[in-house]
Amino acid sequence: MSANLASTPSKTAAPHPGESTTALRPHAEDAFAAELAALAAQDDRPRPARWKLSPWAVATYLLGGTLPDGTVISPKYVGPRRIVEVAVTTLATDRALLLLGVPGTAKTWVSEHLAAAVSGDSTLLVQGTAGTPEEAIRYGWNYARLLAHGPSRDALVPSPVMRAMAEGMTARVEELTRIPADVQDTLITILSEKTLPIPELGEEVQAVRGFNLIATANDRDRGVNELSSALRRRFNTVVLPLPESAEAEVDIVSRRVEQIGRSLDLPAVPDGTAEIRRVVTVFRELRDGLTDDGRTKVKSPSGTLSTAEAISVVTGGLALAAHFGDGVLRPADVAAGILGAVVRDPAADRVVWQEYLETVVREREGWTDFYRACREVSA
Amino acid sequence: MTGAGPLLLGVRHHGPGSARAVRAALDAARPAAVLIEGPPEADALIPLAADPELRPPVALLAHAVDEPGRSAFWPFAAFSPEWVAVRWALEHGVPARFIDLPAAHTLAWGAELPPAEGESEVAEGEQVRVDPLAALAGAAGYDDPERWWEDAVEHRGAGERDPFAPFEALAEAMGALRERYGAGGRPRDLVREAQMRLRLRAARREFGDTVAVVCGAWHVPALRQRTTVTADRALLKGLPKVKTELTWVPWTHRRLARSSGYGAGIDSPGWYGHLFHAPDRPVERWLTKVAGLLREEDRIVSSAHVIEAVRLADTLAAMRGRPLPGLGETTDAVRAVMCDGSDVPLALVHDRLVVGDVLGEVPESAPAVPLQRDLGRQQRSLRLRPEALERELELDLRGDTDAGRSRLLHRLRLLGIGWGEPGPSRGSTGTFRETWRLRWEPELSVRVAEAGVWGTTVAAAARAKAEADAADAGTLADVTALAERCLLAGLPDALPAVMRALGDRAALDTDVGHLAQALPALVRSLRYGDVRGTDTHALSDVAAALAERIFVGLPPACTALDSDAAEQMRGHVDAVHTSVGLLGEALGSATGTDPGAASGTGGAGGAAGHAAGGTDADGAGSDGAEGTGSGEAAGVGAAADMGTAPTATGESAPAIPAPSAGAGVASSPAVGADRSASAAAPSHAGGGAAAASVPGVSGSPVSAPAPAADGGTVSPPDPGAGASVTTAPAPGIGGTVPSVPEGPAPGIGESMPPGPEGPDRVRRLRGLRRRWRGVLRGLAGRDAVAGVVRGRAVRLLMDEGELGAGEAARLMGVALSRGTPPVEAAAWIEGFVGGGGGLLLVHDERLLGLVDSWLTGVPAEAFTDVLPLLRRTFAAYDPGVRRTLGELVRRGPGEQSDPGARGLTAPGFGVEPDAGRADAVRPLLRLLLGIATEEKNLTGVGV
After folding, report:
1. Beta pairing partners, A196
2. Could you count the other beta carbons within 10 Å of the beta carbon of residue A94?
3. Which residue among A264, B111, B455, B538 sits deepest, i.e. has the most Cβ atoms within 10 Å of its Cβ?
């Protein structure tokens, strides 16, 4: 099996003809350049300083719509309109925007598109990790120059945030809560004073109008650095919700599963929609603490059970079905994956899961196979 | 506009902007009289509005005199235009009149309507059929009519312009709508408007043209319309009428927010009140208020937050193209700036500010509420006079009057009117008797008046109160208690809400102890429900689900307990065990077998099983014996299952698969079965089983009297044929005869007419008990489980017949072996033989021997630790049992009866049947069973 899996990447590594020149994933502003141009051309509403589009047009860009001349803007974010409006308005009031949500709720995606639509550039990006240094947010030095010529603006290596301030653009910070707390606090001055002092040079970089910052953070993970209340106060917070309807989620899952399956060169498995729906239902019910019919409450396990995890459960199930099963996605193929996703805390979550099995799954019509499969792997 | 006729002020009910505009217009026009849309009977009540003790929100309540349940409300908030108009008139000494159709008609009308429409009749409504606002909003390009109205009317500052302008514009718009839609699908409006026109004419004759009318904007064009008096009179002719009375009752913002009743349910009365009362800068003031609330709840919210929230709200409103931030914008701003995007604190804001806790007040001089009348009527009809002297009342719930009294008292208790206190029943433990201590205190009248907010009749009020209590209840036990009280009070309508709350709490409660505490009350409720003939399906579903949750959660919860917690857990295990047994009974009885015929069976079977069993620990049988109608089919099953005590077995024949029509069947052959049960019981194990094995043919000679010993054996997976057939491959305990009933139980299916869900339920019940035994087995076998619980589990399994004596002895041996710490072993013993298990030791000398040898093996230093526990265990026994035990122990283990037979026979019985004694019973048996001819196998025991 390992040989089989190991061989898959090499197959996909060879680029398909005709795609060799394009980037694996173009930036939002490039991928949707035509839409942005059409919006800019038709946008007659007032634009804040250095914005490429008016707030209204930014919202339209994200939510999709049809322009007066008939240009169709594809929706980038499928979700409540309210959220996008609050996000865009926040940026327009020069408050920083914090996008919160569990993994897989399109935080990064929204932030990238917002930056692309507002500033026309989504690349001023700081990736937050436990090892992100202060230099990544403020500035670093080109030590060769520093040693050769002494401190000067030429020896200074500006961070994306610094560049955004100088040029009045939108900077992005990904996974803000993973950045160590003392490094996070570097942002306080930037966000409240809108300036970045460079004591070594006795200078400062003042933010130009149009500068703003979008941060994303994960609110369910453990081992993250909570924002200090001083920093938190500088942000308007928008929580991106999980997909609202089961239908939407099934859609997202099947689409992603198909993409991943293709990239892993899994043999095509005929119609797994039924199982996907089941996985999504289980995830949603446990996550929401309520059955789909809205009649029975259930306990929620400690895991996040995000859409992204549902996708990986189904993908895992597909791999099982393709390599070991009869090529059809069956309850047994996903049962183990679900158990793994649900039972994160071996004691408490197991009870939650068993209770769910006994009180919800067992009674449900057409779920007998699934119940059996789950019982088998839980035992 | 003035001078051209009456001043017509079209408003939206409960619109703060409308209220402001009405006040401004009245101030400007100074009319000689104010006419308001509302029932004219309430004219007399208008002066009360000037009473400082009358504080909105209040409502005008109209109710039919003979039928307090038929009622209608006209609520007024401080920001209602109608209220503003009333107050304005009172302050300026100007007469105010209500001009709508009299409540006498409205209520009579309501009665003629199908119930679904009854309530919306009084609803002045945007929500009915054509929605005028939606039409206007649609024309203005809004998708949300509420928002359009807010933008166009409510959020406009009043005063700076012509005070009449907004009304004129609105009237014009409504005029256009009325032209297009007519009555808008509400023919009744035409009648009401005719009445309004008539009253308006009368007022104009009396006060001249300078009268002002405050009514729904929808009616303005109709009031302008020129019609003849005759035409209007014709419309009003022959309207039905009931005798009505009106009064003011206190109202709450929460009730205003409900979308039933009068006025389109406004979901943000607190916000509206704020808009109405705020002198200026409503958004800033609102957000400051929100910040204050959040600070009170220990959230860090600084002025900087408020500033940013105001900015965001303003910008959002601009982006959405609204003139001023509305509730939506401010809520979004609060969420993003003050709540870190979380909806949790936001829910608090919604509850406390957007809806608000405002409670209205009504002076004592207001006329009596209908609830008082209803109570008076019931007191008369039930001949239950309120007396200050305390007295005791015995109720027999089988009688109609007494049942009614009990219901009334229980309902009043639900409402917090403690007229009667239930006392302990004297003598009988039956579920059909109640003892009450009655005493009417003067302040109870006040309580009744207070309870008037809940409804107009005792039943309706109690129901509403129960539903509200269910939503507010803190713990699971509270909700179960509430469910029980709902059943006692005969409020099945409240049950769905209570059950919902119960299911929700149970699902989220992680403490198995709570669940286990809740279950008995619930099961008890089920039985009460039976007595009182209430439908308890919802209850049994919840109970079954609760049981499932306990099954899942119990094993992990029984580990790592200290001795107190373990002791508690043992109590829980016992309670659950009893409940599961009773639940089975209740579920079975819910399937709808004929209660009359079958109850006898259940009773006798249960009693027989009980007698034969001779153990404690069941309780099912004894209940059945009261003939309460519970436990027919399953009752027999229960009795059979439980009755087979380890002591009550005869010869142990090798297990013979006896395809008997199992315990659960007997319902129609009640008579025959009954007899055989009572006859067979004394001499046999599983009297219940005997009863059951007489299938189908009632009164026919019993061909297979020897019990097929289904009782207490493993119920295998349901074969699915008859609802509750247990084909038992019985490892027989009784003197088993390979008895095949005449024909494999003819008519099993028919004999038990299952309800729609009958088979399902019964299967579920079977499953429940099977699973519960599985849980007990798991408990018994797990070392990590506390000793006392483990011992108890073994004991319960043994009582159930699930474990043979040999297996129990093995488990005991394991638990008492040297490797186990003595304290743990003593706990095991406490669990196993505690609580009346002494007889077990008396009769099963092997078990006694095990205990004895363990005890003698306890090291001296550990003995002092073990002693208190053992003392607790054994001190609880009857003196007789203690003495016998002592004698047995003194005799010593070597003196036991024939050791060779020990493995085969049940303890306490001889190896060989005593033919002489058995024969002596035969004539009586024959007599009881009505069998004329001697049948060979009737000799039973000794075959």
Report:
1. A205
2. 17
3. B455
- Separation of alpha carbons B635 and B582, rounded Å: 9
Q: Which fold has domain A80-239?
A: Rossmann fold (3.40.50)
Shared domain check, B892 and B825: yes
CB atoms within 10 A of CB B537: 17
Has residue B309 been placed in a domain? yes
Specify whether B252 is located in the same domain as B295.
no
Neighbours of B91 (CB within 10 A): 9
Closest CB to B341: pick one of A238, A289, A348. Answer: A238
**pLDDT per residue as tens digits for the range B45-93:** 888 888 888 888 888 888 777 776 677 778 888 888 889 999 999 999 8
Helix-helix angle B370-381:B458-472, to 10 degrees: 120
- In angstroms, rounded to a whole number, what is the distance separating the alpha carbons of residues B679 and B682? 7
**Rounded distance, CA A322 to CA A333, Å?**
10
Same domain, B105 and B250: yes
Q: So what's the ipTM on this one? A: 0.75
Beta-carbon separation of B507 and A296 below 8 A:
yes
Q: Which residue ranges make up each domain of chain A?
A: 80-239, 246-378
Structure tokens given for B799: 């009582």
- Domain containing residue B342: 278-356
* Residues B190 and B248 placed together within one structural domain of the fold: yes
Q: Enumerate the residues of chain A whose CB falls inside 8 A of the CB of residue B315.
A: 89, 92-93
Give tens-digit pLDDT for A235-276.
999 998 888 788 888 877 877 777 677 766 776 666 678 888
Which tokens go with A227?
């924002």
Q: Within this chain, do residues B63 and B175 fall inside the same structural domain, yes or no?
A: yes
Distance CA A239, CA A219 (A): 9
**Is the residue at B232 inside a domain?**
yes
- Calculate Rg over the CA atoms of chain B: 37
Does residue B327 sit in the same domain as residue B195? no
Q: Are residues B237 and B283 in the same domain?
A: no
pLDDT of B619 over the 70 cut = no
Do the chains contact at B320 and A351, CB–CB below 8 Å?
no
Subunit contact A89:B308, Cβ cutoff 8 A: no
Is position B696 within any domain?
no
Q: Where would I find the beta strands (DSSP E) of B196-272?
A: 211-216, 244-250
Task: Judge whether residue B833 has pLDDT over 70.
Answer: yes
Helix spans in B718-757 (H): 748-751
| B921 three-state secondary structure | helix
How near does any CA of chain A get to the CA of B517, in Å? 18
Q: Which residue, chain included where needed, has tokens 């197959």?
A: A11
- CA–CA dist B337, B656 (Å, integer): 76
Residue B506 has pLDDT above 70, yes or no: yes
Mark whether B37 and B135 lie in a shared domain: yes
Taking contacts as CB-CB distances below 8 angstroms, the residues of chain B near A85 are 316, 319-320, 332
Burial of B477 (0-12, 13-18, 19+ CB in 10 A): middle
Number of domains in chain B: 3
Query: Which residues have C-beta within 8 Å of that of residue A219, sequence separation ≥ 6?
Result: A100, A101, A102, A239
Q: Give A360-365's long-range contacts (Cβ < 8 A, gap of 24+).
A: A360/A285, A360/A291, A360/A296, A360/A298, A361/A282
The overall pTM is greater than 0.80:
no
CB-based contact A86 B337, cutoff 8 Å: no
Cβ pairs bridging A and B (under 8 Å): 88
In whole angstroms, give the CA distance from residue B171 to residue B645.
85
Report CA dihedral (B855, B856, B858, B859) to the nearest 10 degrees.
160
Does residue B713 form part of some domain? no
Its sign, for the CA torsion B700, B702, B708, B709, is positive
Show which of B289, B323, B356 is a domain's final residue: B356
Place of tokens 């959020």: B155
Task: Answer whether A188 touches B (CB < 8 Å).
Answer: no
| Tokens found for residue B241 | 């009428």
